[in-house]
Write a structure and sequence with these properties.
Length: 932
């Protein structure tokens, strides 16, 4: 007999296995094994007729959740049950946070172990930590499970109640969420501020002075005894100097006159002030600060950061990456201080070990900050890591080590220089001792902010000195609207306001982009017109749900439930079923909300109608004979849409585009059409009865309509162009543009043109070079496998790993099966490949309706037979007898899955960071879902 240890992922299992004694078997649950139904097909037949089944929560029976085992987890559960039969002890070693606790509880409920069961928790995956955790196991903490379950239920109630309303009133496939909708509102509010912003202009003078042959800059700060106006003195709502500000505002003429008056005058240093300062290092990383800094410095999204951090944790490089705490263990402090001493010298150590205090609102699960794992920190360049993994580990290593380094000491110098009635200021900074700057300098959300470790040198200046003016020039400025949020700055605001939890931010950001509420432009998050419409509706009819204070209070209540200071059931009843509960509000508002108004948007200072149509946002005006609509281009953000642009769009819609040239042979007009089903394109000739489908060619990616010249247009319309004949086959080699972009082709064998190759200029030799490369066609994967995983046990044929346009997949004969998106190529094994291939083959065989029905009936019969035994008392045990049917269905296996667009489907619309029971888009779930 052996001891069975269950973790979430194969990577984690592989790492832990090496630290356990003989006789321990480690298996992976592939994330969640059970959850609320994800689709209508997963709802068991015995409860499908219930009015609460779509929610997956019986709101009339003490909010009893309906748990099901998704189809893609049935095999995993069977394997775990088989492994448990051979074990004399079960150890649940899922992650240490609330969601990990919940996974362990669900495993306990499904496996129903008859052997001793223990819960093992650890903050890092090192030999010492695992062996220590093995000696200090405990029971599953049902209070943490209750808190997680309440959060899951609450998120489901919000998402599944509000989202169908948005489908009806605005557009299909939209979603609302407890945290997601607040995040969208923050973005919309910032865009509104930018739109309402009024620019102000001001001028000052910049001088280049020289003392002792050393040049230095200075700027005008005072004139005739009054401070000169800066951008901070303007009212952003009027573009004028704010009331009560006694400052001098220069316009261009005044600045130029002052320049002429001062240019030849004598300059004199009136004062020199030196001010010493110290700078302390930033605390070690929490989940949110890691996401922010990785976005600023490494340009990683929150989702990318968490995926990479998850892998680093599971491979034993860093401690657990979901934490609100900045606390460091004594072991970590000793390791960090040892690194400082050996790499920088003892003078760079802080005099005493430095410990930090968590200040984030509602901080929870405060175990330890994110840091390198172990009692000795591995140097980044001494690990086998590479690419983004190395970059993120290096960031974590430097931040942790810097936290135990001495403060940086600086001297700031301010020199005031007078010339007639004007005063100029020169500022310098000298670093007297770099301290922690040697290891790490925190990034800034302001791209113009100076780095802390950057010195600004001034020459030696004393009061009464006469520096020489080398150059003096007037400089004009315009005030700038509030900056749009980046991922880093949005995460920072969410955390500071106590909205959501850092572990959910990656999922939230991904959701608001995928749902069409946000369009990333560079590093900025720009809300779409759809986001405006949804936010307007929620603000008018459900103001509490998009109120930051209300949402933060909800978050605090959920934390109070976890700590036992609040009761979960009364809170859910009040929130959903109370006199002002969500259920009643939605029913009352549904008849009040006018769909036409809900789809309309009113932008500040723009007296035209903007609406959300079936093909996206549009602008509409009356022209005397009716309404003229024109689609709004995606690249014009709501804050930047002007009346001039609207006039141009309407004019283009009414008159059509003007030809930019005429074809030299046919004399047909050539148009550039800025909008089409697949983006902008060029068109040859007009649409007519004789020419219903004139030739069109899409613009290559990156080429904007206003950049198209007559030569480019004619070149695009000449595609595909023949480059020559293939030396082996004699077939034509051509270059062209298709739906998926530029390509070269020979005898039906296509290759996409990589970035840097121009379809209009690519030559014959380059085309042959591309055609000779292994094919990575859309949906067909690479011609050559990445590697052979082994032979299939049934027929001995090879099972190969390929990389396709949609990710990794395995191939056996004619059967292709996708691997989970989260799985790296090096983790793919023959065992995993056989599993996904079996699932794929089983799914294909069961497509017939009668076969699916028969299979479902058998599953239902077996499930009902097994569910007569009451489960052990759980956090959900205090339920009324009316919840009996739901209890029976908890471990039901879903029937053949269907897809439906009706409001009755339970396809999860909420997208607010709630954890899901494993990926429904993949057979396996290698890493746990983002935490709630």
């Amino acid at each position: 007999m052996s001891k069975l240890v269950i973790v979430e992922s194969p990577t984690k299992a592989r790492t832990i296995r090496g630290f356990l004694p003989a006789g321990y078997e480690v298996q992976a649950s592939m994330g969640h094994v059970r959850d609320l139904p994800d689709s209508a097909a997963e709802i068991p037949e015995e409860v499908k007729g219930e009015d609460w089944s779509r929610l997956g929560v019986n709101v009339r029976a003490d909010f009893e959740p309906l748990y099901v085992i998704p189809k893609d987890k049935r095999k995993v559960v069977k394997e775990l049950k088989d492994a448990l039969k051979k074990a004399d002890e079960l150890i649940l070693a899922t992650d240490e946070d609330r969601e990990g606790e919940s996974i362990s509880w669900h495993l306990q409920q499904i496996l129903k172990p008859k052997v001793p069961t223990r819960r093992m928790v650890f903050h890092e995956i090192t030999r010492e930590a695992i062996q220590q955790a093995l000696q200090n196991c405990r029971e599953v903490d049902e209070q943490l499970v209750r808190a997680q379950e309440t959060r899951r239920i609450l998120d489901r109630l919000v998402g599944y109640t509000l989202s169908p309303l948005l489908w009806k009133k605005i557009a299909p496939k939209l979603s609302a969420g407890r945290v997601q909708s607040v995040a969208v509102k923050l973005l919309v509010d910032r865009e509104r501020q930018r739109r309402a912003f009024k620019k102000g202009s001001y001028w000052d003078l910049r001088a280049e002075l020289r003392q002792n042959q050393t040049p230095f800059p200075a700027e005008l700060v005072n004139l005739a005894g009054k401070r000169l106006a800066t951008g901070q003195d303007f009212d952003e709502n009027t573009g004028q100097i704010a009331a009560g500000r006694d400052v001098v505002l220069l316009d261009q003429a005044q600045a130029e006159a002052l320049h002429a008056r001062l240019l030849s005058k004598t300059w004199i240093v009136s004062s020199v002030e030196e001010r010493p300062s110290t700078r302390k290092p930033a605390p070690p990383f929490t989940t949110s600060t890691l996401q922010q800094e990785a976005n600023r410095k490494l340009h990683l999204s929150a989702q990318q950061t968490m995926r990479i951090a998850q892998k680093l944790y599971e491979e034993g490089y860093i401690t657990y990456m979901r934490t609100d705490s900045v606390h460091l263990s004594d072991q970590a402090i000793s390791a960090a201080r040892a690194c400082v001493s050996s790499m920088y010298g003892k003078e760079y150590l802080s005099p005493k070990p430095r410990q930090y205090t968590t200040k984030a609102k509602g901080a929870q699960e405060a175990h330890e900050a994110i840091r390198p794992a172990g009692s000795e920190f591995r140097l980044p360049n001494q690990t086998p890591l590479s690419g983004q993994e190395l970059a993120l580990y290096d960031l974590i290593w430097k931040r942790t080590v810097a936290s135990q380094m001495a403060e940086a000491r600086q001297t700031h110098t301010t020199v005031l220089i007078g010339v007639e009635d004007a005063v100029f200021r020169a500022s310098g900074k000298r670093i007297d001792f770099p301290g922690f700057f040697r290891a790490y300098v925190e990034g800034s959300d302001d791209p113009d902010a100076a780095l802390e470790d950057r010195e600004v040198h001034l020459p030696l200046l004393r009061q009464g000195d006469h520096p020489e003016c080398q150059k003096l020039e007037p400089v004009g400025h315009e005030t700038q609207p509030p900056a749009r949020f980046t991922e880093a700055s949005l995460v920072k605001v969410l955390e500071s306001e106590g909205i959501g939890r850092p572990s959910t931010y990656a999922t939230i950001l991904n959701t608001i982009v995928s749902r069409g509420y946000v369009k990333p432009m560079g590093n900025a998050l720009v809300p779409t017109y759809t986001a405006f419409a949804v936010t307007d509706l929620l603000e008018k009819h459900f103001p509490d749900l998009v109120n930051t204070r209300f949402t933060a209070k909800m978050e605090q209540t959920l934390d109070d439930i976890a700590s036992g200071q609040a009761e979960w059931l009364p809170y859910l009843r009040h929130f959903f079923l109370g006199e002002q509960g969500l259920e009643g509000q939605v029913k009352a508002r549904e008849s009040e909300i006018d769909s036409g108004l809900a789809r309309s948007i009113q932008l500040e200072n723009l007296p035209v109608k903007i609406g959300i149509g079936p093909y996206g946002p549009y602008v509409a005006v009356e022209n005397g004979t009716g309404e003229v609509r024109a689609n709004l281009p995606e690249d014009i953000p709501p804050a930047d849409l002007s009346e001039e642009q609207v006039v141009e769009l309407i004019k283009l819609k009414q008159e059509g585009p003007k030809p930019i040239t005429f074809h030299p042979e046919t004399q047909e007009p050539v148009y550039v059409v800025p909008q089409g089903p697949y983006g902008p394109y060029v068109q040859l000739g007009d649409v007519s009865e004789d020419n219903k489908k004139p030739k069109r060619t899409s613009l290559p990616k990156g080429l904007k309509p206003d950049q198209v010249t007559p030569e480019i247009a004619l070149g695009l319309l000449s595609l595909p162009r023949t480059l020559g004949e293939h030396p082996e086959s004699g077939k034509k080699v051509q270059a062209g543009i298709g739906r998926f972009g530029p390509y070269v082709v020979c005898d039906g064998d296509f290759r996409s043109l990589p970035a840097g190759d121009d379809v209009l200029t690519v030559d014959f030799e380059r085309a042959l070079e591309l055609l000779a490369q292994p094919k990575k066609g859309r949906g067909r994967g690479s011609a050559k496998p990445l590697r052979e995983l082994g032979s299939h046990p049934d027929d001995g044929e090879p099972v190969n790993l390929h990389n396709g346009p949609y990710g990794l997949y395995v191939k056996h004969g004619k059967v292709n099966a996708s691997l989970p998106k989260e799985m790296p190529a090096e983790e793919a094994t023959l065992e995993i490949a056989l599993q996904v291939l079996a699932e794929k083959e089983g799914s294909s065989k069961g497509k017939g309706r009668s076969a699916a029905k028969a299979s479902a009936s058998q599953s239902a019969s077996k499930t009902q037979g097994k569910s007569t035994t009451k489960a052990k008392a759980t956090p959900s045990s205090a339920r009324k007898s009316t919840a009996g049917q739901a209890q029976k269905a908890k471990d039901s296996v879903p029937r053949t899955r269907t897809t439906t667009n009706t409001p009755n489907t339970t396809k999860d619309p909420q997208g607010n960071g709630a954890a899901q029971a494993g990926s429904r888009s993949a057979i396996l779930k290698i890493t746990p879902k983002a935490r709630v």
